[in-house]
Amino acid sequence: MAINRKNNHDNVRTQILTDIQSDILLNRKKGDKLPSESLYVEKYHVARSTIQKVFKDLEGLQLVERIQGKGSFVKNIKPRINIINYKGFSDYASEMGSTPITRQIKKKVMDNGKKLYLQRLRGVCIDKKYIWLTLDETYIDLVKYPKLDLYDFEKNSLYDILRKYYGTSPATAHLSSNAVFASATEGKLLEVDTQTPLLKIEGDILDIKGEILENVKILYGPNTNFQLTVGI
């Protein structure tokens, strides 16, 4: 892989992270030993500290396990991504060196034009391979946010649209959670079998004024870890 040296240090690090992730996904299996830090330094022509930071990122994604005195080994071939409340999906993708993707399953105007219903499959793309993370259902008030239904949510982030055109953003959440098994349809979308346990989070997302921004139900697939914090 040729590194674009015109980018800043963080982008060089992201390029290396993306390349090693692709190598793991396409060419490695669980338990494989990875090349040494020195070999990666030689391959990418960067400082050892950069490679050390990349491996810390890989550990955070639970792709790599580092064993002192032995080296680095493949822990999983797909990343496990920490979802912390409702931070933007693009932010997660940027942190892990991949591209965010959204597939709109349903979009429907309801209640005589007063509500918008969205069902979206969300994930990341690594080296042209899709890893689906969540299946989201959203109900949002079209009286408060007129013409929101006209946007293409495969190309545009819902929260980016709300911030840019409606002057609002998520602030806090009132949520409940429980473990569920995927239905046949949900399993097909998330690419899991119906016996795979999933985490379901549902409730209200509130804006900075404490008013309901949206009502959500989200199924988290096995490639995600959900971490709940007080704010958003």
Determine the strand fraction and express it as a percent band: 35-45%
CATH class label of the largest domain: Alpha Beta
CATH homology superfamily name of the largest domain: Chorismate lyase-like
Please identify the structural class as seen in this structure.
alpha+beta
> H/E order of the elements?
HHHEEEHEEEHEHEEE
Q: How can the largest sheet be summarized? A: 6 strands, antiparallel
Specify the overall morphology.
elongated
> What is the overall pLDDT average?
85
Task: Determine the number of helices (DSSP H or I, runs of at least 4 residues).
Answer: 6
Report the uncertain regions.
none
Overall strand count = 10
Radius of gyration: 20 Å
Examine the coordinates and then state which fold CATH places here, giving the name of the CATH topology of the largest domain. Chorismate lyase
Describe this structure in words.
By secondary structure, this protein is of the alpha+beta class. The chain has two domains: 9-74, Orthogonal Bundle (Arc Repressor Mutant, subunit A); 81-227, Chorismate lyase-like (Chorismate lyase), CATH 3.40.1410.10. 27% of the residues lie in helices and 37% in strands. It contains six helices and ten strands. It has a six-stranded antiparallel β-sheet with strand order 4-5-6-9-8-7. Strands 1-2 form a two-stranded antiparallel sheet. A two-stranded parallel ribbon has the order 3-10. β5 (115-126) and β6 (129-141) form a beta hairpin. α1 (9-27) packs across α3 (48-60) and α2 crosses α3 (48-60). The longest helix is centred in the first third of the chain and has 19 residues, at 9-27. The radius of gyration is 20 Å and the shape is elongated. The protein starts with 8 loop residues before the first helix and ends in a 5-residue tail after the last strand. The mean pLDDT is 85.
